[in-house]
Amino acid sequence: MPVSTPISFTDEQFAAVTFDADGLVAAIIQEAGTGRVLMMAWMNADSLRQTLDTGRTWFWSRSRQEYWCKGETSGDRQYVREGHYDCDGDTLLFVVEQEGNGACHTGEFSCFFRSFGPESDPAATPGS
Questions:
Q1: Within a domain: 85
Q2: In this structure, is residue 41 part of a structural domain?
Q3: Do residues 111 and 40 touch, judged by C-beta distance below 8 A?
Q4: Residue 20 lies in a domain
Q5: Residue 28 counted as domain residue
Q6: Looking at residue 56, what DSSP letter applies?
Q7: What pLDDT does residue 128 have?
Q8: First and final C-alpha spacing in the chain
Q9: Strand ranges (DSSP E) for the chain?
Q10: Domain count, the chain
Q11: pTM over 0.85
Q12: CATH assignment at residue 64
């Protein structure tokens, strides 16, 4: 079973994160080992701090207007191994150890299981 490991950070690093007008920042979640992108979700300052302090991913649900810790109801938990912020501070990247069946609420391992293009669509026919 994976272990939660808090991610250390400084006040200056935390202050470098740029939240949008709604107080949110995009967080990309990537699987450790494979580099596969699992999901994207939104964090506010509290969920970011909670993620760094606990070593588990916490998000802000825009639809439910509440915090949620990934996997608390599904068992598909994420244990943070690395945390990064981009050059503008407006996008986060967390490398995680994924537990359970995966990150997507549909049952897929990654939320990015669909592709553009006719070869990705079984209903598409060449030349249509």
A1: yes
A2: yes
A3: yes
A4: no
A5: no
A6: B
A7: 40
A8: 49
A9: 25-31, 37-43, 58-61, 66-69, 78-85, 91-98
A10: 1
A11: yes
A12: 3.10.20.810
Q: Which domain holds residue 82?
A: 33-98
Consecutive 10-residue averages of pLDDT for the chain (128 residues)? 94 98 98 98 98 98 95 95 98 97 95 89 49
Token pair for residue 118?
A: 């006719």
Q: Which residues make Cβ contacts (< 8 Å) with residue 44, sequence separation at least 6?
A: 19, 23, 24, 25, 60
The CA distance from 51 to 27, in Å, is 11
What are the tokens at 65? 């207007």
Name the burial class of residue 94, with classes exposed (0-12), middle (13-18) and buried (19+) by CB atoms within 10 angstroms of its CB. buried
- Are the C-beta atoms of residues 55 and 6 closer than 8 Å to each other? yes
Burial 36-70 (b: 16+ CB within 10 A, else e): eebbebbbbeebbebbbebbbbbbbeeeeeeeebb
Q: State both tokens at 27.
A: 């967080």
From residue 67, give the alpha-carbon distance in Å to each of 33, 45, 70. 28, 11, 10
